[in-house]
Amino acid sequence: MKELICIVCPRGCHLRVDEEEDYRVTGNSCPRGAEYGKNELLHPVRVLTSTVRLEGSAFRRCPVKTRQPIAKELMLRAAKTLDAVTVTAPVRCGDVVLSDLLGTGVDVVATKDFPKTER
Amino acid sequence: MDYELIVIGGGPAGLAAAYAAWEKGLRRILILERDRELGGILNQCIHNGFGLHRFKEELTGPEYAGRYIEMLKATGVEAKTDTMVLQITQDKCVSFLNPIDGYRTVRAGAVILAMGCRERTRGAISIPGARCSGIFTAGTAQRFLNIEGYLVGKRVVILGSGDIGLIMARRMTLEGAKVLACVELMPYSGGLNRNIVQCLRDYDIPLYLSHTVTDIVGKQRLERVTISAVDADRRPIPGTEQSFDCDTLLLSVGLVPENELSRQMDVEMDRRTNGPVVYENMETGVEGVFACGNVVHVHDLVDFVSEESSRAGEAAARYILEGETAKEPLLTVENGSAVSYTVPQRIRPAGVDRNVKLFFRVNRVFGKAVILVRSGETQIACFKREHMAPGEMESVILPKTMLPQGGVLTVSAEEVEA
Question: What's the ipTM?
Answer without folding.
Answer: 0.93
